[in-house]
Amino acid sequence: QVQLQQWGAGLLKPSETLSLTCAVYNGSFSGFFWTWIRQPPGKGLEWIGEVDHTGSTNYNPSLKSRVIISIDTSRSHFSLNLSSVIAADTAVYYCARGIIRGGGNRWGQGTLVTVSS
Amino acid sequence: EPVMTQSPVTLSVSPGERVTLSCRASQSVGSKLAWYQQKPGQAPRLLIYGAFIRATGIPARFSGSGSGTDFTLTISSLQSEDSAVYYCQQYNDWPPVAPFGPGTKVDF
Fold this sequence. Notes:
The structure holds 2 protein chains of 2 kinds. In chain A, a hairpin with a 6-residue loop joins strand 4 and strand 5. Chain A is mainly beta. Chain A has no helices and 11 strands. Chain A has strands at residues 3-8, 11-12, 18-25, 33-39, 46-51, 57-59, 67-72, 77-82, 91-98, 106-107, 111-115. Helices cover 0% and strands 50% of the residues of chain A. Chain A is globular, with a radius of gyration of 13 Å. In chain A, the strands form 2 sheets. In chain A, strands 2, 4, 5, 6, 9, 10 and 11 form a 7-stranded mixed beta sheet that branches. A 4-stranded antiparallel beta sheet of chain A has the order 1-3-8-7, with no helix packed on it. By secondary structure, chain B is mainly beta. Chain B is 0% helix and 46% strand. Chain B is built from no helices and 10 strands. In chain B, the strands form 2 sheets. Chain B has a 6-stranded mixed beta sheet with strand order 2-10-9-4-5-6, with no helix packed on it. In chain B, 36% of the residues are buried. The chains are: A mainly beta, B mainly beta.
């Protein structure tokens, strides 16, 4: 059974770069969309972007200028970098493996990232 | 891109009830519509994709229908563990700014 485990810094100051990594255990990378989604406290789901096993990416147009998603299949992980964070970037960030675009049928545990001076 | 709306915002229910949740897209998304269930403190769970295909391990009491702009998630006989927020998501128009609907909270 594929499992996703994510980690990264949970407290950032404005203007810093958010970096999260999602390790994939017991799963193949090809044929899936490797996705990052976030959820501000008490709010709904926001799609950040995706990468496939070739490294091809798609990003949310509203975040595109600040986001980089990368994949390293040899090390079985994919990563999210979001630059120049602001308070509005405070959210629980999830990684997911998608059989469709946008979400996933396997999810990481979520990481609360707080942006505060 | 399609704007996704869901109704109702909140639904108060009783165990054993049949429940219908609605999702509407402002323009056609074909059958590229998914439903997720999210319980407090947990990651979302994929229930339905392709408008009506149940994801692996999803109980048969969950069913999806619709195409184009109007979609429905039906829970045939509510169980206590079905208390959650349900989100729809389009994946026809990509990449999107807001593929998820705002959610419907199902509460006992």
